[in-house]
Specification:
- The longest helix has 19 residues.
- Helices cover 37% and strands 28% of the residues.
- It contains 8 helices and 10 strands.
- It has a single domain, classed as Vaccinia Virus protein VP39 (Rossmann fold), CATH 3.40.50.
- By secondary structure, the chain is α/β, with parallel strands linked by helices.
- It comes from Xenorhabdus vietnamensis.
Length: 247
Amino acid sequence: MMLEKDLDYNFIADRYEHFMKAAAHIKVEVRTILDSIGDVHGKSVLDVACGNGYFGRKLRNCGAAKVVGIDISEKMIELARAKSKQSGDDLEFHIRDVCDMESFGKFDLVVAAWLFNYAESLKDLESMFYNIARNLKPSGKLVAYTISPDYRLEMGNYDVYGINILGKEPWKDGNRYQAEFLSMPPSPFTFYQWSREDYESAVEKAGFSQFEWKKTNVLESDIQLHSQDFWSLFQQNCLNTGLNCHY
């Protein structure tokens, strides 16, 4: 199926890259994801919703033996391939919808940063987890980063962190949000929020043996750089969360 993410990110691909470099909280979130991933030396990695290949390229440079990137956005894959050509790396990229993704092999690790928040239905959410699971080796690991089921818009917008949430509405069994990256000009996008129970049900149906939610942690060095007031909302009502699953 064609997700709204395809329309969103084909339009904003260049601006999104700028946002990823400029937004203050991205460093904290990237650190959280990399901490969950751990040592990748000699491992094979499938990077779904890979965007311009940021995580896959970083993991290849950290010793991963093989990295394959998947994204629904043709524009993002074009950027990813251009960056690989420029840097001379050997990352492999494919345009795919994870809801319909075939098996690309058996990987030690799958990274899914900002993928599941584009599931428009619980069926899509379950399909994403299922297709990821069938690309993992036995004892393989999924490291995901997604919209927190606990985030509440009424507790505060996220504009100080570069994302302006324009509105929220009930959507099927979850919520749908309209938002924009505060790039110049702003870049609109849509995301979906599902409950912990919905995620955990999809994880179990896909055959994962265990899972753990991972909070995004702000370090003292982050507070010194931007102040406690700046991080207050981020710590109390974080928009995103980690989810690690073992196959």
